[in-house]
Design brief:
The protein has about 130 residues and is mainly alpha-helical. It is built from 4 helices and no strands.
Length: about 130
């Protein structure tokens, strides 16, 4: 596997780590906190950066399950992270306690794309 593809995959794996820390720590604490938001943003930044690098590496987009769930996952991550930012800024205690439901949905959806990317990458290793 070319080094630039491995570097991109590593950045996307960092997105998995950051986003998972944010989502699951929010879930376990039962309330959205500012520090969770930092991990959401770090996950989103790493995922979009890694995805952009992958697109540069391959030069074209093939529409399949991976790309459709990947772009949908990034779109959901943007909505999720921006909404979390608004909830924190407004200090809405009710929404802070209910937010984890949406977080788990977005994380689960995004994980489909991550997992399919891993399988595609493993299949293409020579």
């Amino acid at each position: 596997m070319p080094a630039n593809v491995m570097y991109s995959a590593s950045i996307i794996t960092m997105a998995l780590l950051f986003y998972s820390i944010g989502v699951w720590s929010e879930r376990y604490s039962g309330v959205l906190k500012t520090w969770h938001l930092y991990f959401f943003w770090l996950g989103l930044i790493c995922d979009t950066t890694g995805t952009g690098m992958m697109m540069d590496n391959f030069g074209n987009i093939v529409f399949n399950l991976h790309t459709i769930t990947g772009f949908s996952g990034i779109f959901l991550m943007v909505i999720h992270t921006v909404w979390a930012t608004i909830v924190i800024i407004k200090n809405d205690t009710v929404k802070k306690r209910q937010f984890h439901r949406f977080s788990l949905f977005v994380w689960s959806f995004w994980l489909i794309s991550y997992t399919s990317g891993v399988f595609i990458g493993i299949r293409n290793v020579h």
